[in-house]
Amino acid sequence: MRIGIAKMQTTELAAKSIKETLSDAGIDSFYFKNNSQITMADLVIVLGGDRGVRNYFHHTLDIDTPVLGVSESESSGFLSQIELRDLRLYLSRLKKQDYVIESVPRIAVKIDGKNTHPVLNDVAVFTSKSATLMEHVLRVNDEVGIISVNSLDTTRRPLIVSDNSIIEIDEISSRLHCDVVLDGIDRYKVIEKIELTKFTPPARIIRMNADSTAVSALAKKVKLAEELLAMPPSSKLLLKILEYEGSMTQKELISKTLLPSRTVRLALKHLMENGHIRRKISMRDARQKIYEISN
User: Fold this and answer.
1) E-strand spans in the chain?
2) What is the CATH number of the domain that holds 239?
3) Residue 192 maps to a domain
4) DSSP-based three-state secondary structure for 124
5) Is this model's pTM higher than 0.85 or not?
6) Fewest beta carbons less than 10 Å away: which of 99, 158, 228, 288?
7) How confident is the model at residue 73 (pLDDT cuts 50, 70, 90)?
8) Which pLDDT value is given to residue 152?
9) Is residue 16 pLDDT above 80, yes or no?
């Protein structure tokens, strides 16, 4: 067996640790930086948790090699189920190919007539400043509905459509410009229209654990949507910023949201008590505490 290691959103130390772990188990592995090498692998290990997996599929041209997501932190997500410290426990199963490969749908995105990379998880539209009203027209297969939303309003229940639907968002109006955020990573300015369709082929994700189906992932997201209904606006805002911007310190959150320090402190306390986020010591500065989403 030969395994490729993609270093996405991670450190050299973590990548080196995985290579040494695989070598100790008699598994040949290699780092890669371009798609021509991926065809040489039986599978690809992508570091960086869910965010790393999403970022990997934004750039890869490989449609065949399955991907195993590995997280460096003590968390599991929708796309990345294995923690780095537990990788050794799964090596024998990897050798035997004792796992399930799930085909995860991707979304084709067109912004103002220009194609972007395919999206694996979500597409979000925001005003460039928090707490600013935005109006738009939403069309699903040419069925029209006019919606006026506040950028803090994350309480709307999920709209479930078939995977062959064409979703269009246009006539976007706000006193400030609006951005489209793809998979919580890449941000694009939108002027007139967004079009979403099914992208082919799907992503091939290796599943090692039983609780890994798309239904399970959707159930978790629906549960979160229900909890958002009763959440204070400040908590919603912080949760969304941490989701789309990544880990931040309290000082960075205050600067980003322009909220009073006391409001941010109370919102962080509320989110931690309800298990939505967690706090840990910064690896760069032990005096700093950073906050991140709990998967």
Assistant:
1) 2-6, 28-31, 43-47, 67-71, 80-83, 100-111, 114-115, 123-127, 133-140, 143-150, 167-173, 178-182, 186-190, 193-207, 248-249, 277-281, 289-293
2) 1.10.10.10
3) yes
4) strand
5) no
6) 158
7) low
8) 47
9) yes
